[in-house]
Design brief:
It is built from 22 helices and 22 strands. By secondary structure, the protein is an alpha+beta fold. The chain has 3 domains: about 5-215, Heat Shock Protein 90; about 245-390, 2-Layer Sandwich (Ribosomal Protein S5, domain 2), CATH 3.30.230; about 505-550 and about 575-639, Heat shock protein 90, C-terminal domain (Four Helix Bundle (Hemerythrin (Met), subunit A)).
């Protein structure tokens, strides 16, 4: 048969040279590309046979064969799929050039790293030519199903290719790579190694529909003369068990759990399995898992998040961050999209509107699953919230669109229960008559919060307070602001007048007492002017002599520390000192000030009182050594 030689266009030749010099950071993907192309060819033949029963094509054993020849250093990927005609080879394989090639070349040269280059390749779909990263020559032999004549395409990637019509080509397509010489220092990329081929197939092509087979390794010793041995069956390298693509009734829980343990690198069964299938203009399937325990590094900067991304069962990437928001980083699983490029990169994913659609739906599906869990199985929900509630609450700050959904599944410790958690809905249903706000207090532990002076009046009046002990609670409570029209109010911020909510002292009595103490309050403000911006009487104290609170719109000390730890300097807000006029110590200060007693000792008493208030909320006096000295002197005099 005659052979025709062709030259690539100038731009296509430049593109091919760039491919040969490895713009991919991972050379293994060349085999993923070839196996995926073969799988597509098998899909097309199956469909064409369904449409045209008269098509002369064998569909009884559709499969992909891999063959290695270490002596000749060749690797062949063969399928018995739809194949290509002579014209189709010239159009689909023989030409890379298209209207976007010039732009592609320019952007490829400007790409700053290999990852950026891979992303550009994904946009232009030239993954077949990744073969030239590992091969000096590529030969393609193909025959379209139903035709008698086949075609051979050959190129060394040096700017030319040949096309030859052949008579004896089998149905389908085979691609033979004449591999580059072995690198003794890099055996990990020796593609005539059977274990290497198996590793790549298992990683990238384990779930494709069709069997990927490889002939067994030749026996170490030949059979004796006259001895008949049956040929060994080829080995199937992929499982073909894409659980997300099979009907739910055909998959056991054990199979789901086995997949989760594999992709989640966990030894425990998952807490919940979530399936999702989207049909329409953009089709995809998802199989997600909620783990039963949080990994130890969930809150570290280096935690690897994201689910596995497949395209038509072909593995694309681990840890695809674009598919779920950071606060759902603990979710593991698989998403299989039908309409994405095989070479899609992380950069492209961030800009793809289909990915954004998937992200929004997957997020809502996870949150609705947690909501159902809370309604139907409190024990499993309690496990979930204990392990992942802190992470989920980050979404209250970062995801305004799903804030209500997160609030609906969130639960918190409260003064209403010693051990059980409560939802905001349950809190609102229990609010006292006349109570307008949802009260909360943040702190390092439940014990520390319950012992806080800020809690005294609320405890005495039986007003429920949410006890928030996670660092993120400082942030989300301010960001959310209200629930069902009820303001979220910290009991340690702003002016809180509980007397207005019960039958306590009348407004006239409070005003009279404020006038009575006005002189002491003004004098203490002068003494502590560097540290506080106001001294006032408190309605939240019943036992302690004093407490410090933040103004309604100021950052709390905990938030200030958090921002500084992140490298964000914030001005230190002055606090407010509140005094309990019913406490003997405050009454003594008031009497001493009114009677003009020794002001040096009085000033020290005011300083000590402020220091005690700071200590009571878990803080530290500005000058600990001075505070200790003043306290020691007072104790000595008292004894």
């Amino acid at each position: 048969m005659s052979t025709e030689a062709f030259e690539f266009q100038v731009e296509a030749r430049q593109l091919l040279q760039l491919m040969i010099h490895s713009v991919y950071s991972d050379k293994d993907v060349f085999l993923r590309e070839l196996v995926s192309n073969a799988s597509d060819a098998l899909d097309k033949l199956r469909l064409e046979k369904l449409w045209d029963d008269s098509l002369d094509a064998d569909v009884s054993d559709l499969h992909i064969d891999l063959a290695v020849d270490p002596d000749a250093r060749t690797l062949t990927v063969r399928d018995n799929g739809i194949g290509m005609s002579y014209d189709e080879v010239g159009r689909l394989i023989g030409t890379i050039a298209n209207s976007g090639t010039a732009k592609f070349l320019q952007e490829l040269r400007e790409a700053k790293d290999a990852a950026g280059a891979e992303g550009l390749i994904g946009q232009f779909g030239v993954g077949f030519y990744a073969s030239f990263m590992v091969a000096d020559e590529v030969t393609l032999l193909t025959r379209r199903a139903g035709e008698d004549e086949g075609t051979r395409w050959t190129s060394r990637g040096e700017g030319t290719y040949t096309l030859t019509k052949v008579d004896d080509a089998p149905q389908g397509t085979s691609v033979t790579l004449h591999l580059k010489p072995a690198d003794p220092e890099n055996q990990l990329h020796d593609y005539v190694s059977r274990w290497k081929i198996k590793e790549i197939v298992k990683r990238y092509s384990d779930f494709i529909t069709w069997p990927v087979r490889m002939a067994p390794e030749a026996a170490a010793t030949p059979p004796e003369e006259g001895e008949e041995t049956a040929p060994a069956a080829p080995e199937t390298l992929n499982s073909m068990k894409a659980l997300w693509a099979r009907p739910r009734a055909e998959v056991t829980d054990d199979e789901y759990h086995e997949l989760y343990k594999h992709i989640g690198r966990d030894w425990q069964d998952p807490l919940e399995t979530i399936r999702l299938q989207a049909e329409g203009t953009f089709e995809y399937q998802a199989l997600l898992f909620l783990p039963a325990r949080a990994p130890h590094d969930l809150f570290t900067r280096d935690f690897t998040r994201g689910v596995q991304l497949y395209v038509k069962r072909v593995f694309i990437m681990d840890d695809c961050e674009a598919l779920l928001p950071p606060y759902l980083r603990f979710v593991k699983g698989v998403v299989d999209a039908a309409d994405l490029s095989l070479n899609v990169s992380r950069e492209i994913l961030q800009q793809d509107r289909h990915i954004e659609m998937m992200r929004r739906r997957l997020t809502k599906k996870v949150l609705s699953t947690v909501k159902d869990m809370a309604a139907k199985d409190q024990e499993r929900y309690a496990t979930f919230w204990r392990e992942f509630g802190t992470a989920l609450k980050e979404g209250l700050v970062t995801d305004a669109e799903n804030r209500d959904a997160i609030l609906a599944v969130a639960s918190f410790a409260s003064t209403h229960h010693d051990t059980e958690l409560t939802t905001l809905q349950q809190y609102v249903e229990r609010m006292k008559d006349g109570q307008e706000d949802v009260y909360y207090l943040t702190g390092e532990s439940r014990q520390a919060i319950e012992n806080s002076p800020h809690m005294e009046a609320f405890r005495d009046r039986g007003i429920e307070v949410l006890l928030l002990t996670d660092a993120v609670d400082e942030v989300w409570a301010d960001a959310v602001g209200e629930y069902q029209g009820k303001k979220l109010r910290s009991v340690a911020k702003g002016q809180i007048d509980l007397d207005a909510e019960d039958d306590g002292a009348s407004g006239d009595e409070r005003e009279k007492r404020a006038e009575e103490y006005a002189g002491l309050l003004g004098w203490m403000k002068e003494q502590l002017d560097e540290d506080i911006k106001e001294v006032r009487l408190s309605s939240r104290l019943t036992v302690s002599p004093a407490c410090v609170v933040s103004d309604a719109h100021d950052l709390t000390p905990a938030l200030e520390s958090m921002y500084r730890a992140m490298g964000q300097e914030t001005p230190r807000a002055q606090r407010i000192l509140e005094l309990n006029p019913d406490h003997p110590l405050v009454q003594g200060l008031h009497r001493a000030h009114r009677e003009r007693e020794d002001h040096t000792g009085l000033a020290e008493s005011a300083e000590l009182l402020y220091g005690l208030a700071v200590l009571a909320e878990g803080g530290q006096p500005k000058e600990p050594a001075r505070f200790v000295k003043l306290m020691t002197d007072r104790l000595e005099r008292a004894l």
